[in-house]
């Protein structure tokens, strides 16, 4: 995933990209989101686990970060690095699909059920577009195990985040998935580090059961200089459901802020610029099953905190807040309040 065959002619942009990947491995040992994803697929393939990825622009990646299929400069020949790791690896399949979320997601759900030993992933071009497949989500992904005792390990990657692109290109509708969550029927995550994304993908094979995994994946964070992970974050530990604030001292904290996803980096930038020491910014990486015990334990750690907030970039009636408010009001976090955009009928 870092080297290109010398007997093929690639575009200069691709050669530069792979030189940067090589530098991450051999020099900096610090990896961005795209490399975290590549490492997840590459290690699974090397362990004999088939990986299948489909969606409307998955070969390149909607935001030009993946480059999983390379077209040569002097011909129409295609080269797939992840299919050329070793002679012993499992197959890697990747397909740009046609413009039907309903049809493609339904097919991939069926494929994931028929082949439980493959990591089957469907990626929306923008997370907002999943609503074209709402029937598949309601009737199968969210409820098949309850209705028919049928497990499924399908992964959905839904690019999410308010980046100024307006309605239909900003929100993967976290609130819709959260209202479907019950009986441990699926996993919903909004990761903030490449290493956590790496671990949550691999976790699909490291458990003795299968559950659908919904990932609200990033857009601007794909190239954010702070959104990187060191090598030991990949090789040690595992997926972190909650990430505490390492920049503050517990005794100084009077306000605890929980958040998820991209907004963390905006809060972090403000915290660092203003040298704020009394606010702890805590990331909830897994929205469901909600890590209530961990959130309560972190709150208790900050004994001098008299304010607890959930902060989100979505309007108040959207995002994770409506679910969390209902979930937390009977816990030790019952005093939690929200900071968000005002409620809205549109994203």
Helix coverage percent: 25-40%
Number of domains: 2
What is the H/E string? HEHEEEEHEHHEHEHEEHEEHEEHEHE
Question: Radius of gyration in whole Å, from Cα?
Answer: 20 Å
- Structural class by sheet pairing and helices: alpha/beta
Looking at the overall shape, the CATH architecture of the largest domain is 3-Layer(aba) Sandwich
**Major sheet characteristics:** 7 strands, mixed
By DSSP, the count of extended strands is 16
Are there runs of 5+ residues with pLDDT below 50, and where?
none
Number of helices: 11
Taken as a percent bin, the fraction of beta residues is 15-25%
CATH third-tier fold name of the largest domain: Rossmann fold
- Largest beta sheet: what is the strand line-up? 5-2-6-7-9-8-14
Average pLDDT: 96
Classified by CATH, the class of the largest domain is Alpha Beta
Distance between the first and last residues' Cα: 37 Å
Oligomer: single chain
Any idea what the shape is? globular
């Amino acid at each position: 995933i870092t080297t290109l065959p010398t007997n093929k002619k690639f575009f200069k942009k691709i050669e530069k990209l792979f030189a940067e990947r090589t530098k991450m491995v051999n020099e900096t040992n610090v990896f961005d989101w795209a490399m975290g994803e590549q490492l997840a697929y590459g290690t699974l393939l090397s362990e004999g686990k088939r990986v299948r990825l489909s969606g409307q622009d998955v070969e390149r990646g909607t935001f030009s970060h993946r480059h999983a299929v390379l077209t040569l400069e002097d011909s129409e020949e295609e080269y797939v690095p992840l299919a050329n790791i070793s002679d012993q690896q499992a197959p890697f399949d990747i397909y740009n699909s046609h413009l039907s979320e309903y049809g493609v997601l339904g097919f991939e759900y069926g494929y994931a059920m028929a082949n439980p030993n493959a990591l089957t992933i469907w990626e929306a071009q923008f997370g907002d577009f999943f609503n074209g497949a709402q029937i598949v989500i309601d009737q199968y992904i969210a409820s098949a195990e309850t209705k028919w005792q049928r497990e499924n390990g399908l992964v959905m990657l839904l690019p999410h985040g308010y980046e100024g692109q307006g309605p239909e290109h900003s929100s993967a509708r976290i609130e819709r998935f959260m209202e479907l969550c019950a009986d441990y029927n699926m996993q919903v995550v909004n990761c903030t580090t490449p290493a956590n994304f790496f671990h949550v993908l691999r976790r699909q094979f490291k458990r003795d059961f299968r559950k659908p995994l919904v990932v609200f994946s990033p857009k601007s964070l794909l190239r954010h200089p702070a959104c990187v992970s060191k090598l030991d974050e990949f090789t040690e530990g595992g997926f972190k459901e909650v990430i505490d604030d390492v920049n503050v001292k517990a005794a100084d904290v009077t306000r605890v802020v929980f958040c998820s996803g991209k907004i963390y980096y905006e809060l972090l930038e403000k915290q660092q610029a203003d040298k704020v020491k009394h606010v702890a910014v805590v990331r909830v990486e897994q929205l469901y099953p909600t890590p209530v015990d961990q959130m309560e334990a972190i709150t208790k750690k900050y004994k001098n905190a008299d304010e607890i907030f959930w902060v989100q970039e979505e309007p108040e009636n959207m995002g994770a807040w409506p679910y969390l408010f209902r979930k937390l009001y009977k816990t030790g976090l019952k005093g939690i309040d929200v900071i968000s955009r005002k409620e809205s009928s549109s994203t």
